[in-house]
């Protein structure tokens, strides 16, 4: 039986991403997010307007989307209630956040240079995607009490790095879903994917039929 309900959040399960950007002083910022979805080689992310990551993206228009696996859960947790914004925004003080300048260091993670943008990849993350901002949208323009508080960014991926441990044998351009165990956020708790529960008719479609111009254009640039 279904009941009428009013959950405070609607995080029914989304991947965790460590997004790295450059601060105004040239140092690296690193923040976990889980408001993200992909379409082709583009994605949409949502960020609080007061976050340092959001501020950096508005200026630099560049970021690396690093996807942690279950093995990086402890490192991600060390970052969860930190912010690169100083002073800490009132809304984050209420939630127990603190200012941290050296995000990579406190999480025990290693920053390595990106190839196409000015930001750092997280060496420990099995998936690293260099991206540029293509469009910016302010959420809830229809609601005066909410407008301006959350910004959504459309990002185009222009370089992908995969750890060999998660790719299919003899297929460097395909991720093996039986090997890839992404970190998933579900109602503020960390989970991951389990075993395959049913055959999917979509798996009968060759992956190359999903190729987009964005992917083809990045291959031409290499």
Report on the architecture of this protein.
The chain is of the alpha+beta class and 222 residues long. The chain has 5 helices and 16 strands. The strands form 5 sheets. It has a 7-stranded antiparallel sheet with strand order 3-2-6-11-12-5-4, with helices on both faces. A 3-stranded antiparallel sheet has the order 1-15-16, with no helix packed on it. A two-stranded parallel ribbon has the order 7-8. The longest helix is centred in the first third of the chain and has 9 residues, at 52-60. The chain starts with 13 loop residues before the first strand and ends with a helix.
List keywords for this structure.
222 residues; alpha+beta; three-stranded antiparallel sheet; 5 helices; 16 strands; globular
Distance between the termini: 55 Å
Q: Quick one: how many beta strands?
A: 16
Largest sheet report: 7 strands, antiparallel
Uncertain segments: none
Strand content: 35-45%
Number of helices in the DSSP assignment: 5
The best one-word shape is: globular
Strand-pairing-aware structural class? alpha+beta
Order of helices and strands: EEEEEHEHEHEHEEEEEEEEH
In spatial order, strands of the major sheet run 3-2-6-11-12-5-4
What is the secondary structure topology, with strand pairs?
Layout lengths: L13 E2 L1 E6 L5 E6 L2 E4 L2 E7 L3 H9 L1 E6 L5 H7 L2 E2 L6 H5 L3 E2 L3 H5 L3 E3 L6 E3 L4 E12 L11 E13 L4 E2 L2 E5 L8 E3 L2 E3 L21 H9 L1
Parallel strand pairs: 7-8
Antiparallel strand pairs: 1-15, 2-3, 2-6, 4-5, 5-12, 6-11, 9-10, 11-12, 13-14, 15-16
């Amino acid at each position: 039986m279904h009941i009428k309900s009013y959950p405070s959040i609607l995080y029914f399960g989304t991947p965790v991403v460590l997004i790295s950007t450059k601060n105004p002083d040239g140092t690296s910022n690193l923040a976990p997010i889980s408001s993200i979805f992909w379409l082709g080689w583009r994605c949409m992310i949502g960020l609080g307007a007061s976050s340092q990551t959001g501020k950096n993206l508005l200026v630099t228009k560049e970021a690396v989307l690093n996807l942690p696996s279950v093995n990086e859960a402890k490192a991600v947790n060390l970052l969860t209630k930190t912010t690169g914004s100083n002073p800490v925004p009132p809304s984050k003080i209420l939630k127990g956040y603190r200012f941290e300048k050296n995000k990579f260091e406190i999480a025990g993670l290693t920053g390595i240079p990106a190839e196409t943008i000015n930001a750092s990849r997280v060496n420990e993350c099995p998936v690293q995607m260099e991206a540029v901002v293509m469009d910016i949208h302010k959420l809830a323009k229809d609601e005066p009490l909410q407008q301006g508080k959350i910004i959504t960014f459309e990002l185009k991926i222009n370089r992908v790095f995969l750890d060999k441990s998660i790719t299919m044998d003899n297929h460097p351009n395909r991720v093996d879903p039986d090997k890839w165990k992404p970190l998933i956020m579900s109602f503020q708790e960390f989970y991951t994917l389990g075993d395959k529960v049913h055959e999917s008719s979509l798996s009968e479609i060759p992956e190359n039929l999903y190729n987009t111009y964005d992917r083809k254009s990045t291959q031409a640039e290499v």
